[in-house]
Amino acid sequence: MTAGKEQPPKPTSSAFSVTKLIGPGLLVAAAGIGAGDIVSATMAGAGFGLTLLWVVALAAFLKSFLNEGIARWQLATDTTAIEGWCQHLPWWVRAYFGFYLVLWTVSVSAALTGASGLGLATLTNGAIPRPWGAVLHSLIGGTFVLLGGFRAFEKVMKVLIALMFFSIVACAVLTFRDPGAVLSGLLVPRIPAGAGPSVLSVLGGIGGSIAMLAYNYWLREEKMAGPGWIRFVRADIAIAYVFTAVFGMSVMIIANQAFHVAGVQITNAQAVTKMAQTLGQIVGPVGFYAYSIGFWAAVFASLLGIWQSIPYLFADFYGLIRKYDQPVRARLTQVTSTPYRLALLFITLVPIPFAFLDQPLFVIRSFTIVGSLFIPFLAATMLYLNNFRIPKDSGVPRNSILTNAVLVLALVVFVLVGASEAGLLRR
Questions:
Q1: Are 137 and 298 in contact (CB under 8 A)?
Q2: Pseudo-torsion of CA 344, 348, 351, 353, nearest 10°?
Q3: 363: three-class secondary structure by DSSP
Q4: Domain ranges, residue 142
Q5: Is the pLDDT of residue 22 over 60?
Q6: CA-based nearest residue to 82, from 374, 400, 417
Q7: Taking Cα atoms as reference points, which of 308, 314, 320, 305 lies closest to residue 342?
Q8: Span 127-181, pLDDT tens digits
Q9: What is the pLDDT of residues 322-337, one digit of tens each?
Q10: Which of 31, 74, 86, 295 is the most exposed place for a label (fewest CB within 10 A)?
Q11: Structurally, how many domains does the chain consist of?
C-alpha cells in the first residue's frame, strides 16, 4: 500500500455479528438467484423428484469457492478481478471479456425483465400483461438505482431477500412430506436415466455467474479492504451460498410434491404459473400468493442487483481500456460517474424490445446457458492469479490444495455444462 494513502477501516468484533453478516455476500446471492435458478430447479423436481437435491448443493459449493477467490484477490491486491485480468493476462483476455460482458448484459437484462413481468402477471392474474410488466420493472429498476444510491439499494435488497426466502421456504415447509427422501437426495449422488440435461441446467442456473464479480465493488462500497477482512469475507460468502442452496432445494421440494408425486407433466413455459396454481390447489390461496410473491421478489431482487452492479464492471473496464491510473478508475466506478450512468441507461433500455417476444422462457434459458459459459473462464483465471500473482507479503493466503482441486473441478464441470446446454438449445 502506497505511503499517504488512506487506510481502510479495520474490522472490529461487532463486524462479525449476525446483523453485519447480512452484507455483500447476500447481495451477490440475491443478484445471482433469478428465473433461471427457479425454472431449472422446478423442472428437475417435477421430473425426478428429490433425487437431484445434491446437484443444488454441488453448484452452491463450487460457486462459493469461485466467489471466495474473487474476494481474496481483492483483499490481497486492492484491485478487482477485472483489473487483475487486464494487468496480468494477455490482451485477448480483455477482448474476450469485453465481448462477453456486452452479450451477457443483453441476455440477462432481457431474461430478468421478462421474468419480472411474468411474476407480476401471475400475481395479478393477467391484469397487468407480462410485456408491460417487464418494461415497468426495467424502468423502475433503472430509476431507483440512479436516484437511490448504494445505501437505499442495500436496504431495499434486504427486504426483498427476506421476502423471497421466507415465502419460498414457507411453501416448501407446507408441502414437505418425506424427510427420508430429502436426506437421500442430498447425501446420495445419483443421476436417474434421462436426468443429464436437468443436472446440467441446475448446475448452470444455481448460484449466478458474472454477477459474482459484483462482490469486488460492494466490498469497496462497504469500505472493506486488506487481509484483516478475510475471516469476515469467508463467513459472508458461506452464509450467502447456504442461502442459495436452501432456496434452490426449497423450489425442488415444492416441485416434487406439486408435480412429481402427483404425476403431472409440465413444460418450461408452465414452470412458474402452473406451480402457483398447483400450490393454490394443495394448500389454498396462501400457497398461490406465497409462491407468486416469492418468485416475484426473487427475480426483482436479481434485477435490482444486476442493474446496480453491472455498470461498475463497464466503468471499470472502460477505465482500464483507456489506461487511466488507479485514482481515476476509482472515480469512474462510483455510482455518480458518467460511465456508470451510461452503462445503467444501456442495461435499462436494451431489454425493452425483448419484453414483447412470445417466448420469455426461451430467453431465460438462453441467459442460463450464456451465464454458464463464464464459469470456466473465471475458474481458470482464479487458478492463475491466486496461485501466482497474490503477493507473498500481502497477508492473504494463496490457493490451498483444496481450493485448487475445487477450482479445477468447477472448470471441468462447467465446460461440460456450457457445451451440453448449448447443444440442447440448438435442438
A1: no
A2: -130
A3: helix
A4: 20-426
A5: no
A6: 374
A7: 314
A8: 999 899 999 999 999 999 999 989 999 999 999 999 999 999 999 999 988 899 9
A9: 999 989 999 999 999 9
A10: 86
A11: 1
Please tell me what DSSP assigns to residue 386. Answer: I
* Pairs from 127-132 (Cβ < 8 Å, separation ≥ 24): 130/355, 130/360, 131/355, 131/356, 132/355
Residue 3 lies in a domain: no
Half-sphere exposure of 263 (CA within 13 A, CB side): 0
15 within a domain of the structure (yes/no): no
What span, in angstroms and rounded, lies between the C-alpha atoms of 222 and 92? 32
- Taken as a whole, the chain contains a residue count of 427
Burial letters 196-220, b for 16+ CB under 10 A, else e = ebbbbbbbbbbbbbbbbbbbbbbbb
Q: Are 107 and 368 in contact (CB under 8 A)?
A: no
For 333-373, where are the alpha helices, taking DSSP H only? Answer: 338-349, 360-372
CA 312/CA 303 separation, integer angstroms: 15
pLDDT, residue 39, reads 82
Please say whether the beta carbons of 312 and 31 come within 8 A. Answer: no
Residue with cell 418450461: 268
Instruction: Report residue 211 as a C-alpha cell.
Output: 454477477
Q: How far apart are CA 60 and CA 63, in angstroms?
A: 5
pTM of the model: 0.89
